Amino acid sequence: MSFMITTDRLILKVLDSTYASEVLTLYQNNRTLFETFEPTRPENFYTLDFQTTFMDYEYQDIIKGKTLRYYIYLQEDPTTIIGSVNFSSIMHGPFSRTSIGYKLDKRYHGFGYASEACRAAIEVIFSNYKIHRIEARVAPENLPSIKLLERLGFLYEGIEYKGVEVNGSFRDHYRYALIAE
Fold this sequence. Notes:
single chain; 8 strands; globular
């Protein structure tokens, strides 16, 4: 497992809960944007206690190979988290698959950072984890995310009806997939 990846412009790192304050800042600064498309959050999500506990739990799942999350930094500013890319529900064997998720601070949209980070993380999930299939769900109105998935080579598979709860109601999402070559 790679706990750190570098690309031309980015550093991607697996973090433990000692970084909870920095992660909380990312979420607080982008609350409106992220909540538009992400699953409904618990009321205490925007607290340091929640982030610390969640990051402890997630780190244990990363060690066990059940999930993987990289936090994204610019090489020119390796102290500020600008986003993350993650793989959840990692399965091996005949159901070899995972789901990808990603987010980027609104100040860094439009520079190709999400694409660069996702490409690097996808390489790790295919080569190190030997995953066969990566799935993605995206809200039909989230055009930037749809374009990102298509640039990454994901193929549209159809609609998942009422599959994800966002802001208290279950919404339809497009389903995409990328198969290891």
